[in-house]
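W.,

You were right to be curious about this one. When I first looked at the sequence I had no strong expectations either way, so I just let the prediction run and decided to look at it fresh. Below is the sequence, 416 residues in total, followed by the output.
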Amino acid sequence: MIHSLFIINSSGDVFLEKHWRSVVSRSVCDYFLDAQRKSPNDIPPVLSTPHYYLISIQRGGVSLVSCCKQETQPLFVIEFLHRVVDTFEDYFSECSESIIKENYVVVYELLDEMLDNGFPLATESNILKELIKPPNILRTIANTVTGKSNVSGTLPSGQLSAIPWRRSAVKYTNNEAYFDVIEEVDAIIDKNGQTVFAEIQGYIDCCIKLSGMPDLTLSFMNPRLFDDVSFHPCVRFKRWESERMLSFIPPDGNFRLMSYHIGTQSVVAIPIYIRHNLVFKTGEQGKLDITVGPKTTLGRTVESVKLEVCMPKNVLNCLLVPTQGKYSFDPKTQILHWDVGRIDVTKLPNIRGTVSVVSGSSTTTESNPSINVQFSISQLAVSGLKVNRLDMYGEKYKPFKGVKYVTKAGKFQIRM
């Protein structure tokens, strides 16, 4: 499937390459770099060259470009590349050029185990950690002195079992299961406050710390909200199709159980509002006045609020006074950034001042530029998704006895 993998930095330099079936010259990446120069923000995920297919993703400031000689399913390769980045982030806390260069040895060891002759072999983090120990200072010093590697001499206990995503004989003193539900809302709102377009992308992340081989079932009160779903391989898809219930034997540790999408046919109540007054006149001082606040029915604290105002091209500079946070104006991109932070309901954040417009400009000034808002709200489901019940069974499908599990109210990150 995959012959070679190249990792390219933001400058267009290949700083890591790995070959499985045959050595492919890194000059094949020139096709990818040409496409990147033509459209940096819209690179085709699949590029056809005279002898290879290049399938790529971009994450964390680096690009992963896989080289395939035969036709293959692009989404299969893209999913594997995302799994590679997720594994690097789990091992090294982030996936960047500097981190990868600092952990060259572990990176090559991981790629050797994740792909066998070009086909995925072990992609679950808990299985890989049993085979390749995560790097730390003491282990690095010991390996340097003794000449050993991080690779274990024994095969992981669950790799060749019927459940390859879970280690066998797992034991915990305190059995717990944590669930975090994260929702991201993308919406377009007109100047009257009416929602023109809105959709929700949600995730259910889990941290399972249960002994033995637990079998879990998770049901929702309103599963018909979902328009599109994507599951971890541990989920029994037939039971979801028939009963709309998640039945699974979970991996050990952290993993993403489910991703879902909710389209525009569902009513999405945007939890914040913006009052604005923007006036631009060519050759004169314009005015800008923006206030942001939560809806009265929200009852939650709005945090990490950031605003981006796409100013007209003939705006020269901004002289503003914010009551909260900091602002900056980039004359090259013509974007005004306002980092508000946490909103205090008693004193709503406001930014106002004057805007300098180039005199004698022939460019038509936009009276209503777009305003992009990003914010996060904890313990709030904009979609209205509710969990009905969580049941756990043992290896013989008998209810657990004396097991303590905690369903943690998730942090719902909302982006508009």
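Here's what jumped out at me. The chain is about 15% helix and 35% strand. And, maybe more interesting for your project: The longest strand covers residues 195-209.

Coffee later to discuss?

I.
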